[in-house]
């Protein structure tokens, strides 16, 4: 039974690699363009690209490697229904609707990301235990950070400026810690409702 599971896992990994957007490298897998991650593991983005990175597996660590993901439609990164997701170290630029969308997830960590010029930089819906740390949000046409029904969450050490509507919007979200952030030049600094 154990060999069958291992073989299935290996075949699934090779199927994902066959998409030519994810290639094996050193201690993990390298992402070279828009793709869907369907296997748990450590991933590093190797170059800038336009399009959407979809995370459709639990236990995924994505290091953007200082690279830029831009022009995602509707989002540059989308995570729906997953647990234990880590996204760090890069630039999210010009998502048509969202820079990053996190929907119905648990235990998500976003750090060291610079978000620029999306409608909403970070949209978090119906999610528990999300941590956003040391990120920069600038020049969003709507909200810098939008939490709707996002519970037991934290936003710390972030710089948010130039949002057309809210720097931070917390709607129907409970037990959220927003501390040690700087919010400037937004129509409204922070709105909390529900």
3D structure, described in words:
The chain is mainly β and 194 residues long. The chain has one domain (2-193): Pectate Lyase C-like (3 Solenoid), CATH 2.160.20. It has one helix at residues 2-17, and strands at 22-25, 28-31, 35-37, 41-45, 49-50, 53-55, 60-63, 68-70, 75-80, 83-93, 98-103, 106-116, 120-133, 136-138, 145-151, 153-156, 159-161, 166-171, 176-179, 182-184, 188-193. The protein has a 21-stranded mixed beta sheet that branches. The longest helix is centred in the first third of the chain and has 16 residues, at 2-17. Mean pLDDT is 90; it is low at 4-18.
Short summary:
This protein has 194 residues and is mostly beta strands.
Radius of gyration: 17 Å
State the name of the first-level CATH class.
Mainly Beta
Number of H/I helices: 1
Structural class: mainly beta
> How many distinct beta strands?
21
Low-confidence stretches: 4-18
The outline comes out as globular
Average residue-wise pLDDT:
90
State the helical fraction. Answer: under 10%
Order of helices and strands: HEEEEEEEEEEEEEEEEEEEEE
Supply the number of structural domains.
1
CATH architecture annotation: 3 Solenoid
């Amino acid at each position: 039974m154990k060999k069958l599971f291992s073989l299935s896992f290996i075949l699934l990994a090779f199927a994902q690699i066959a998409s030519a957007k994810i290639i094996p490298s050193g201690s993990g897998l390298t992402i070279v363009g828009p793709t869907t991650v369907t296997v748990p593991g450590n991933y590093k983005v190797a170059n800038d690209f336009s399009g959407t990175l979809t995370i459709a597996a639990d236990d995924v660590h994505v290091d953007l490697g200082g690279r830029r993901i831009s022009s995602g439609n509707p989002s540059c990164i989308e995570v729906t229904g997953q647990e234990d997701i880590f996204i760090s170290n890069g630039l999210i630029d010009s998502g048509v609707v969202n820079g990053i969308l996190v929907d119905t997830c648990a235990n998500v960590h976003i750090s060291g990301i610079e978000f620029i010029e999306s409608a909403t930089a970070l949209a978090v819906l119906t999610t528990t235990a999300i941590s956003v740390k040391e990120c920069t949000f600038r020049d969003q046409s709507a909200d810098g950070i939008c939490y709707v029904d996002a519970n037991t969450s934290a936003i710390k050490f972030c710089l948010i400026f130039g949002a057309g509507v809210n720097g931070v919007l917390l709607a129907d979200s409970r037990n959220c810690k927003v501390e040690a952030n700087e919010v400037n030049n937004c129509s409204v600094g922070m709105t909390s409702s529900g």
